[in-house]
Amino acid sequence: KKEEAPILSKKEMKRVRRMYPQPLVSFKELRSKYKISSRLAENVAEQGFTVPTEVQLGTLPILLGDSSIPMENEAEPDLLVVAPTGSGKTLSFLIPAINKIVRHHHSKSDEHGILAVVVAPTKELASQIFNEGRKLVAGTGVKITLMKKGMRVVDQDEEGDVNVLDEESEASSGSDEEEYSKPKKGQTNVPVTKSDILVTTPLQLVNSLSANQTMPMGRLPLVRSLVLDEADVLLDPLFRDQTLNIWRSCVHPDMRVSLWSATMGSNVEDLTRSTIKERLEDLGQKSDK
Ligand code: ADP
Ligand code: MG
């Protein structure tokens, strides 16, 4: 009656444990266990949520990387997440993406440019994500930009930094943009900001990337976190090509993609697998040379 053989052997259990860190217990652990930026932790606390939702419990430890558990293959996996509408997916991807950038800034890296891209299928969704992100980055030094019509992603300042330009000048740059600088003589584009995070619809980003003909593929060379929100929609035929173009523009070897959705058909899983495989093969070929 008792002493049923365990489904997994001890060794297998160990492996699974390593692949899937323990769920988060409370938001306090973000600071105590996962050592996220103190300011970011304060901003999360400020939201007033008492208990993390299920999807937050599960994904935050994976994306933040529990340093006490050595991950088997990579420091951070690519991730495909299915959780119902209203379950708090936005915080689940924003907190790790922002924290990674804070760490990046602290690492004295001289890379400056877009380090994270969040793609959502509609302007309204992008705008909601941006507003949540704005609250979370306050005081962390991380800059977040909502892509709008007329903005362009360019890689053309002296240090080769990737910037966002706003062709519509003052009209849309807004008074809350602290980094706003007056256009220099003969300069038609206004650098809105040296942004770390872009929140965008697929079309808005694809347009702003392809408007710049002088740049070769890999126009988002520094991006470490690519978030595809409502991934089932982003990968349906209407948006698929644009989304895959963006995905393929994120060429950094440490780039990780996460896909988030309330529903996830098998076609999404297949497409995800094949695109990730493509990237890994690409990386393999590069390192062979
Ligand atoms: P989803 O993207 O999964 O549909 P959202 O990220 O838009 O869900 O979150 C839905 C609502 O739940 C938002 O108003 C958000 O502020 C709120 N929320 C997020 N996390 C929590 C939490 N831990 N406790 C209570 N409410 C939360
Ligand atoms: Mg959502």
Automatic annotation (TrEMBL):
<feature type="compositionally biased region" description="Acidic residues">
    <location>
        <begin position="157"/>
        <end position="179"/>
    </location>
</feature>
<comment type="function">
    <text>ATP-dependent RNA helicase involved in 40S ribosomal subunit biogenesis. Required for the processing and cleavage of 35S pre-rRNA at sites A0, A1, and A2, leading to mature 18S rRNA.</text>
</comment>
<comment type="subunit">
    <text>Interacts with the U3 snoRNA and is associated with the 90S and 40S pre-ribosomes.</text>
</comment>
<protein>
    <recommendedName>
        <fullName>ATP-dependent RNA helicase ROK1</fullName>
    </recommendedName>
</protein>
<feature type="region of interest" description="Disordered">
    <location>
        <begin position="157"/>
        <end position="189"/>
    </location>
</feature>
<feature type="domain" description="Helicase ATP-binding">
    <location>
        <begin position="70"/>
        <end position="282"/>
    </location>
</feature>
<comment type="similarity">
    <text>Belongs to the DEAD box helicase family. DDX52/ROK1 subfamily.</text>
</comment>
